[in-house]
Amino acid sequence: METSSGGSSDEGRRIFKVDTWCSQFRNGSNPWMARYIYALMFLIANLLAWAVRDYGRGALTEMERLKGCHGARDCLGAEGVLRVSLGCFIFYFTMFLSTTGTSKMRERRSAWHSGWWSAKIILWIAFTIIPFVLPATVIRLYGDVAHFGAGVFLLIQLVSVISFITWLNDCCQSDKAADRCQIHIMLLATMAYVICLVGIISMYIWYVPQPTCLLNIFFITWTLVLLQLMTSVSLHPKVNAGILTPGLMGLYIVFICWCAIRSEPGGGKCIRNAETSTKTDWLTIISFIVAVLAMVIATFSTGIDSKCFQFRKDDNQDEEDDVPYGYGFFHLVFATGAMYFAMLLIGWNTHHPIRKWTIDVGWTSTWVRIVNEWLAVCVYLWMLVAPVIWKNRQMVVGAV
């Protein structure tokens, strides 16, 4: 029995290398290619939600069930986004339930994950249409739940990013690569800190044109303080985590701070050239496209990191027939990602007026980003300090 399964595994791996792309798609033989198809479907759902929000008002007004938005100008568009998001969530959550626990390539659930595309496309279309006939109360309830689901996605993404930074630092400081990578670590860390400082200075220039912009001054200055705090804790003799991880984490929190300030509603005096940003220009369109692609890529990269909560490397070696990534976790990330893109497109508020070709704009979005930045620093500092605390506690218990 083991011989046959091993032979089928070897045969399947040979198919990956020999068969054409179309043949692999038809036979459902390649789980690595399947993840790109799921990402493409997720991208289409994003674009569909945007089209419903910005250009679907004329078509959706004929549907009686979409009315009753309490007089808000763009509430209809927000409900359309939530309906598309709900359909996307149901599809990926169904895939999560049907693939979770899959461990071997020879299992039928693995074939379901990597194949049966005609059935799954029909299922995806059906799940996209069904929410448009549901009552508005159900959609509003989903909108409330989506706030929590989007927060779960941000938390998973945060742990994944910190896990990657820690893994990169451990690889560079390993016994085999310590001498060879020492110069590279210094160059990479120096470059990270330089970019952080340039980013902070640029934010002061572009987002603090007047001394009265106290909130932006607080956001940017506090980010600089957090960067210094992470560096000091990392270089503490009892922690001794090096200079690379705080530098990379600094890049991450500076980027989040920039996204938070960019999410502030236009027309204010604390954004340089804000009066010209009220018009839809090519820069706005390009920024929107980049934001959508970044959201899809972030969901994709987080989804394939099924071991993002495992900070210690397993001693058990992976067998040849093991699945290349966690199918259930992959679909769960995309399910929460569906809630996340809904929150970005409606500014985390169903009754918030939204301008065309914008994403993640509004004071709610700004504070969500800022809290995410502070939470990232807290998680990172806890990862540095926790081993020292546990070590000291064990020493006290041992002494007693």
From TrEMBL:
The chain crosses the membrane at residues 36-55, 76-97, 117-138, 145-165, 185-207, 214-235, 241-261, 282-304, 324-346, 367-390. Keywords: Membrane, Transmembrane, Transmembrane helix. The keyword Membrane applies. It is found in: Membrane. It is a multi-pass membrane protein. Pfam families: Serinc. GO terms for cellular component: membrane. InterPro entries: TDE1/TMS. Its main location: membrane. Belongs to the TDE1 family. This is Probable serine incorporator isoform X1. It comes from Cucurbita maxima.
